[in-house]
Design goal:
alpha/beta; 5-stranded mixed sheet
Length: 527
């Protein structure tokens, strides 16, 4: 699993941005899912859903702020109990002692791209020199070679930090990727007309990214050009990331990024606002896709190991991400919204002799289903309180035992960085019905077939009256099925707002936070 890996950046889905031949190998050996989605598009909650097979409102990990409830039973615990040897290497994002693992070496929090620290099961905290994607792969291959019990089944979680913000590619890719030019998305300059929540979101590539930490302009160049920090602690974040490079790594960085800075200094006096937005899009894509290049290379190393050791035919391989990501669509980066680039996640599954090679499925599957699938494959009983469905019928073509016409989504982290309003939704193959609540209170109806770029709200269109009614029924049924409610939403608001008021939520501007706190406090007094 990778972090924030957009399906648009995997060539098995779309090769207009990058070629990923090794990740594509998994699709060629097995099944590519085109409608895989997450239940809550933000890092730690997505991982909690994968581990528990439960929606955020049930497992309790609704956002990146609240702690993970360690009394949750996770699928690795159940597999371990059933005799599987279990291991985890890379980014978990929350906790420092993951339950159900015989071995682990995990990054603390978000982790670092260069010379990262690790929390380990047997060695305490360690620091490893090098590039994180390579290191996580080295750890994974070392475990497969030296710690794996040859006579036992195993479950290995191989989890990359890349391509999470702030994107730092490996030294070996800097020359190639800082010189690449990428096609712009059709909605790079979307004005979000008729979409109030989208209009106020703070995810614009030009305006809500850091000049230093994100676009990799040196802080002294910002000062030279009179560029203000557009996000909090931008220069400090730059120092925290680029500052980890040792002298050799920094020299290599400077070789290529000094040239980037010099070119920008030369162009800047004559650049229009649109020119700057285009430049920042290219800078974003260069760094983001540069990190994916090393992910693909290292996935290839693992696949090569399995092949060389005659393990491919008896190993199920799943490649996914904790959610999708905006690559300039709607003018954005990041995730959170229920729109496709954020909602959908890559999912490629190889299962030799059971899954037809090169097959494609458009079924509505979710990360909610992963735990149940792994347990089903291993012959381990699924706990009754898990909420997903095993994907084995879809994988094996047993569609008589698969029936799902809608999935449920709920995003909670607001007020917070990027200013994306709380919302929940029902999603079918053709439509989305979305309810924004708390700070805003309104509905959106998206026609996924007619408007695949998701720029129009058809909720109040009389032509959609029957469709709207049907979608409301589906949404109500999903909320009842999964045990979600207005009371639960209010409970999570009431737990979150004191933290926001105390400044414990990152990235919220006072002009956004203060009226929201006042509104919430007023409502509590009325209650």
């Amino acid at each position: 699993m990778s972090d924030d890996h957009a399906y648009q950046a995997i060539s098995a889905y779309d090769n207009s941005l990058i070629e990923t031949p090794n990740i594509d190998r998994i699709a060629k050996m097995g099944m590519l899912f085109t409608n895989a989605s997450v239940t809550n598009s933000i890092c730690a909650p997505s991982r909690a859903t994968i581990l528990t097979g439960k929606h955020s409102h049930i497992n309790g990990k609704i956002d990146n702020v609240s702690p993970f409830d360690t009394t949750n039973v996770t699928f690795p615990q159940l597999l371990q109990k059933a005799g599987y040897q279990t291991a985890m290497f890379g980014k978990l994002h929350f906790g420092n002692n993951p339950k159900g693992f015989d071995q682990f070496k995990i990054l603390p929090g978000q982790g670092s791209y260069y010379n990262p620290d690790f929390i380990t099961k047997n060695e305490g905290e360690i620091n490893v020199k090098g590039y994180v994607t390579d290191i996580v792969t080295d750890m994974t291959l070392e475990w497969l070679e030296n710690e794996r019990k040859k006579d036992s089944p195993f479950m290995l979680m191989y989890l990359h930090k890349a391509p999470h913000r702030s994107w730092l590619m490996a030294e070996r890719h800097m020359e190639e990727y800082t010189n690449k030019t990428f096609p712009e998305p059709k909605t790079l300059f979307d004005d979000h007309e008729g979409m109030p929540a989208a209009k106020v979101a703070e995810m614009k590539i030009d305006g809500d990214m850091g000049w230093a930490a994100d676009s990799k302009l040196y802080p002294e160049v910002m000062d030279q050009l009179g560029l203000e920090e557009q996000i909090g602690f931008d220069k400090r974040r730059y120092e925290m990331t680029v500052g980890r490079l040792d002298s050799t790594q920094k020299a290599n960085f400077d070789t290529y990024y000094r040239k980037v800075a010099e070119d920008f200094i030369e162009q800047y006096p004559s650049m229009t606002e649109k020119d700057i937005a285009k430049w920042r899009y290219q800078r974003y894509m260069q760094d983001y896709l540069g990190t994916i290049k090393s992910v693909d290379e290292n996935v290839g190393r693992v696949l090569d190991y399995l092949e060389a050791n005659n393990m491919m035919d008896n190993t199920i391989i799943v490649y996914t991400s904790d959610q999708g990501f905006y690559l300039g669509e709607h003018g954005w980066f990041d995730k959170r919204f229920v729109y496709d680039e954020s909602l959908k996640t890559p999912l490629l599954v190889s299962w030799p002799n059971r899954v037809k090679a090169g097959s494609v499925s458009d079924e509505l599957v979710q990360n909610l289903d992963f735990a149940e699938t792994f347990l089903d494959v291993a012959g381990v009983e699924q706990p009754e309180d898990m909420q997903g469905k095993s994907l084995v019928p879809v994988l094996t073509g047993d569609m008589e035992n698969w029936n799902r016409d809608a999935v449920y989504y709920h995003y909670y982290e607001h007020p917070s960085e990027h200013n994306v309003n709380r919302h929940y939704a029902a999603i079918t193959k053709d439509y989305k019905l979305i309810h924004y609540y708390f700070d805003m209170d309104y509905w959106e109806l998206i026609n996924r077939k007619k408007d695949p770029l998701e720029q129009h709200n058809y909720y109040d269109d009389p032509a959609y009256a029957e469709i709207q009614k049907d979608l409301h029924q589906k949404l109500d049924a999903l909320r009842e099925q999964y045990g979600d409610s207005e009371a639960l939403s209010q409970k999570y608001i009431d737990e979150f707002m004191p933290l926001a008021k105390e400044g414990k939520v990152y990235g919220v501007e006072d002009d956004i936070l203060k009226p929201m706190v006042e509104k919430w406090e007023s409502s509590k007094k009325e209650d």
